[in-house]
Amino acid sequence: MLASVVLTLVATSCKNAGNGQLVGVQDRPEYVEVIPFGMKNIPLGHTIIGGGMADAAYSQTYAAKNVTVQAFWMDETEITNNEYRQFVMWVRDSIAHVLLGEAEVEEDNQHFKKYRKGENEGEVIEPRLINWNTPIDWDSRDEEYQAVLAQLYSSPAGNERFYHYKAKDLNVKMLNFEYWWVDRRAYRDPEDPEVMGAAYKEFDNADPQTKDMGMFSNRPTAYNQGKKPFLRREVINIYPDTLCWIHDFTYSFNEPLTENYFSHPQYDYYPVVGVSWKQARAFCAWRTQIRNSYIGSHDWAFENEFRLPNEVEWEWAARGYRENSPYPWGGPYTQNSNGCFLGNFKPQRGNYAADGGVQTIVVAHYHANDWGLYDMAGNVSEWCEDAYSESAYNFAHDLNMQYTYYAKDNDAPVLKRKVVRGGSWKDISYYMQTAVRNYCYQDTGKSYIGFRCVQTYLGRNFGDSKTASSNVY
Question: pLDDT tens digits for 89-136?
Fold first, then answer.
């Protein structure tokens, strides 16, 4: 028996390359960094964040701190209405596919794609695979087909419900986006996905059966048992709160924006607002999904995820090369030498129109900062990934600093606070400073808060001309 094992080892070793030397696996694919469309490269670096003694009143809220930040890609503008509308229309179409797939119709009707049925009545086997190559015939004259599609619109009378520019006619209550994500920081009870304990709960590295299991020796019990306590399921209604223009301002006539801001083509390239932190994260998950679906069909690229920036990444990107400057454009002033305002905010004593816009304005209207990013001060504030804590700068790590807490629906409101940065069209210039922190609640959409996405840079030498030139599309 021993002889056969030795022969097996010898025969196997003869197949390895490297002449008996440790050379690693030789047939690994070469990594190629694909530049995400509409994003700018933000290099790795070290900086001093916060205001420190420059603002004594808030020196504890954002104290000066040395941090190091990894390289990443960042959207050059905030996500616009038209970009977010692509998300809404994708969710609408996916629901339409599911509705059509579950309809009771003739088998030979080419418009319908049957889903696999479960054992119980009405049960659909997950995942719900959608054949996107089968187009939806929104103008079909098939009455049964139209009756199924009519569920997606609030006004079932007439074909006008299928006019794509009339997004306000959508039955927005149905626009739920379902996705799964890995929460690597928190332990979750596998029997009850809604129960979350402290991070790294129930360590069992003292268990003699698991203490020598390598990566599994320092993980929660459920993880060692092959379960998935870190996998979260999210179902989010993704339609923006178009009523935020009325809710945010008492006794103010903002009805025109309520009716038109998200649906009218005039506002296609304005920043999307009324989107909560949860909806912004869902957008990142969807953007990752459609991006990776395309990349997965090519051998020359690897998957990577989009996400919200943590607040240190945001501040590092907003500052550009101007470490000690309070604003992204440099200097202590909000006007240039010609008296023109350099961002969209609430200047002077409340003259909203002095900077060229009363509310939000089209993205990239003002000059970009040193790294090619627009509107890092003003227009709309932007969601960050971090939970908000006044003392976060004092206890968070100085390497890729991020304070994270994913609050549940029944958590106290103070635990639902998320960081927003950059100031908005309704804020005075103080909030436009790169160091100033503010917050809003994760399940709330505001008329002055938008977002942009980032993607971690996974390449070798950042700024390599060969990578940057050959993969722009």
Answer: 999 998 888 887 754 344 444 444 444 444 444 444 455 667 777 788
Which residue in this structure is represented by tokens 């964040």?
49
CA distance 225 to 412: 32
Owner of token pair 């002449």: 19
Question: Which pLDDT value is given to residue 280?
Answer: 97
Would you state the structure tokens that stand for residue 246, as one six-digit string? 């009325």
Phi, psi angles (nearest 5°) of residue 4: -65, -35
Asked if residue 468 has pLDDT above 90, the reply is no
- For residue 241, what pLDDT is reported? 93
Q: Which domains does the chain have, with CATH numbers?
A: 39-80+279-468 (3.90.1580.10)
Distance from C-alpha of 75 to C-alpha of 368, rounded to nearest angstrom: 12
| Nearest CA-CA partner of 435 in 40, 58, 22 | 58
